[in-house]
Specification:
About 20% of the residues lie in helices and about 25% in strands. The chain has about 290 residues and is α+β, with helices and mostly antiparallel strands. It has one domain: YwqG-like (Hypothetical protein YwqG fold, Roll).
């Protein structure tokens, strides 16, 4: 249950100004309730992946089959006005025997132990039995090395996202919002101490970037992996392709768990996305 805050009028106005300044479209992702297993071509976390039987199945740096973490059927996003394809399938695979789930700390775009796959068409004739015969590993059956504890089908809705305090550049936006609301001139270096504790907690909750989503602003429990890149590289990865948060059901069963309640992000270049080029994608996850 979300905490009830009693923010000051000033804090409410500052947060509303930040929302006004940074509003951007987002596609919200929700886990569908219920225990009915998703179908082969459904958008889902975990489960048996759809696969084009004419292609080689993805393998890791040791030549072993990878496991599916997430699958997005772009037909489910057809109604939204975005740069995503109107058809085809996007998939995230990771190494199946790695306690950091395929992430490369030094080269986060190196797809050695994770792989982003795009199928431009989806063949309805492929069966689960055919895919299973490839010797796949199911993420939800590989608890020691998987963030996916239970497979789940996904649903999507259009929404509006707002910049959160963990995103680079928030300091500048906050200072501008304070000036617009109060007339005060702040030093960007001191923005963090401007609000009282209750007002600060209210702002962080109102502007939280956590959740499953595509596009919008990313969230981190530690830091943005692009901060360690050159300015040119960081600018290249300008679009949140997919964010997968830790996810617990109301009955306290874990569906997704990145370490200690962490979160994962995939970043891509906007023009590359338009061109259906998923060869350069940053994959990162962090936890508390």
């Amino acid at each position: 249950m979300a905490k009830e805050h009693q923010p000051s009028e000033k804090a409410v106005k500052i947060v509303e100004k930040i929302k006004e300044m940074t509003a951007t479209p987002v596609i919200k992702i929700k886990r569908r309730e219920g225990d009915v297993p998703p179908a082969l071509t459904d958008s889902k976390f975990g489960g048996v992946p759809y696969w084009d039987m004419q292609k080689a199945y993805p393998t890791d740096s040791n030549g072993k089959n990878m496991m599916l973490i997430a699958q997005i059927n772009f037909a489910d996003l057809r109604e939204f006005d975005t740069d995503f394809p109107k058809e085809g399938m996007l998939q995230l695979f990771v190494r199946a025997d790695d306690d950091v789930f395929g992430m490369d700390f030094d080269e986060p775009a190196s797809q050695k132990d994770f792989r982003v796959i795009f199928h431009d068409t989806v063949c309805a004739d492929v069966t689960q039995e055919q895919v299973k015969e490839l010797g796949i590993i199911l993420a939800e059956e590989n608890e020691e090395y998987s963030p996916i504890f239970r497979t789940a089908a996904l649903s999507f809705s259009a929404g509006t996202d707002y910049m959160n305090p963990e995103v680079a550049g928030f300091e500048r936006v906050f200072v501008q919002a304070v000036k617009a609301v109060t007339g005060e001139e702040l030093d960007e270096q001191g923005w963090y101490d401007y609000l009282e504790d209750e007002d600060s907690s209210y702002m962080y909750d109102e502007l939280s970037g956590f959740a499953h989503k595509m596009l919008g602003y990313p969230a981190f429990t530690q830091s943005d992996p692009r901060e360690g890149m050159t300015d040119e590289e960081a600018r290249y990865y300008d679009t949140l392709l997919l964010q997968i948060d830790s996810d617990m059901a109301e009955d306290r069963r874990d569906y997704v768990l990145w370490g200690d309640c962490g979160i994962a992000n995939l970043f891509i270049n906007k023009e590359a996305l338009k061109n259906r080029d998923f060869s350069r994608v940053v994959y990162n996850w962090d936890c508390c």
